[in-house]
Design a protein that fits this description.
Length: about 425
């Protein structure tokens, strides 16, 4: 398995192009199942998870082709056509590789009136049930059975619009419901809907495919179902988690980097704690500049919340910054029940962190020390990269396949702004 070695201590300066958002590309790819015409997705990142979704779509009989971006900063392009669909079964051995595969359930039931999709199972950060997805589809008229680890959904007379109120915000459940409602008969009202930019991006693509949707980005979305949807061309929005990750890299290392092809409003909730920590975030005409030239960062408290709150997908990265800041930061994780697995690895690097339930008390230290560490999940892995960039000496990160799931060309992007980072091919 590949490993990544980092020699810490360099300040960063230069430009990093931001890729298209993984968490938008995945539901957007699933949306191709809603039509028999071609869906073209531009600015699509080349990531392991995106590759898995392509493999899953082909297993149904969809035609897919992906052309990588011609250069460093250019996104790739998917062409997806779900015309000759031979199967509506998403096998366990594909779904277990990537839980976002579950996003094919809504589109399959809506268009083909049946689907058999493996339950995704839990993952490192939590049980991550799908009860909200299933309840919403039942409310839209699907019969749901659970058999041998599979969800079997049937809607012989098609789905019917309904009023769906989620007890709490779920990104995936909102996405499955939005796609299913687009082909349901009549109007669907989704209350307590997720407001993430990726939801808006999916909704805008569905509108380009002929759907009638209002309220995107608010907690009340209304969908007027239609009989068929047509093909479209849609550019994937920039990845706000990648944007935030590299903004934190500038904060933890010091220096001045410009993140291009993105915007400050995608990381709105990160800016106040970054500025409190002593980092400046400035909008430029290419994107956003992040600079910290002064003294050591100072501590700042954060609590993860659904959008527009502080993103849970940036919690681990922010903790790496807090581990080197002056003072004590309280970091609370309210979305997932087990998302502090980066803590033991940061402790190996000399961090001083106590976890009490859903809160981590991070007492900043002057310098972390490089060490061999283990990646456990996607965002925890990149937190270790950030810690390694600031640490004294070498850090070697094992199991970097986690990183490849969500960060395109990570070593290239960081090397381009002065980090000493290389991949050790095993
Ligand atoms: C999406 O996961 C993202 N993944 C996650 O990013 C992100 O952390 C999460 O949203 C929260 O923002 C993709 O978009 C592919 P949820 P999702 O449904 O949709 C519970 C990454 O690193 N829940 O909003 O699975 C759930 O267990 C990944 O890119 C239920 O109980 O998240 C969690 O505690 C990690 N029942 C909370 O709700 C359900 O039916 C929020 O989950 C659904 C969710």
């Amino acid at each position: 398995m590949d490993r990544i070695r980092i020699r810490g201590g360099n300040r960063l300066s230069g430009e990093i192009p931001i890729s298209g958002a993984k968490n938008a590309a995945l539901p957007l790819m699933a949306a191709c199942l809603l039509t028999d015409e071609k869906l073209v997705l531009m600015n699509a990142p080349w990531l392991a998870d995106v590759g898995f979704m392509g493999e899953l779509l082909r297993s149904f009989g969809a035609e897919t082709s992906y052309v990588r971006g011609p250069s460093f900063g250019e996104g790739g392009q998917w062409e997806l056509t779900a015309k000759e669909i031979r199967s509506t079964t998403a096998d366990y051995d594909l779904v277990r590789k990537m839980r976002a595969s579950f996003l094919v359930l809504g589109p399959l039931v809506a268009r083909f009136r049946q689907a058999k999709v493996s339950m995704p199972g839990g993952c490192a950060i939590g049980a991550r049930p799908v009860d909200l997805h299933l309840k919403a589809l039942e409310t839209l008229g699907a019969e749901i059975l659970l058999e041998e680890g599979y969800v079997i959904a049937r809607a012989p007379r098609g789905l019917k619009g309904a009023r769906i109120e989620f007890p709490f915000v779920s990104v995936g459940a909102t996405e499955n419901t939005l796609m299913a409602a687009a082909l349901a008969q009549g109007e669907t009202e989704i209350l307590n809907a997720a407001r993430e930019p990726e939801i808006v991006d999916l909704g805008l693509c569905l509108i380009a495919m002929g759907a009638t949707i209002s309220g995107l980005g608010t907690s009340r979305i209304v969908v007027e179902g239609t009989d068929t949807l047509h093909g479209a061309r849609h550019a994937v929005l920039p990845d706000r988690i990648e944007t935030g990750t590299y903004a934190i890299a500038a904060a933890i290392c010091g220096g001045d980097i410009e993140l291009t092809g993105t915007s400050a409003d995608l990381i709105g909730a990160l800016i106040p704690p970054l500025e409190k920590a002593g980092t400046m975030v400035v909008t430029t005409n290419l994107g956003v500049s992040v600079r910290r030239n002064g003294s050591r960062s100072s501590a700042s408290d954060v609590s993860t919340e659904p959008y527009p709150g502080f993103p849970t997908d940036l919690q681990a990265q922010f903790m790496a910054l807090a581990a080197t800041a002056e003072g004590t930061s309280r970091i609370r994780e309210t979305i997932f029940e087990n998302r502090f697995m980066h803590v033991p690895e940061l402790l190996r690097m000399g961090a001083d962190i106590q976890v009490q339930g859903d809160t981590a008390l991070v007492h900043g230290v002057e310098r972390l020390r490089g060490a061999p560490v283990m990646a456990t999940d996607l965002r925890a892995s990149v937190s270790l990269v950030l810690a390694g960039l600031a640490a004294e000496g070498d850090t070697v990160i094992n199991r970097v396949y986690h990183l490849d799931r969500g960060f395109e060309r990570l070593e290239e992007k960081l090397s381009a702004v002065g980090a000493e980072i290389e991949r050790l091919k095993e």
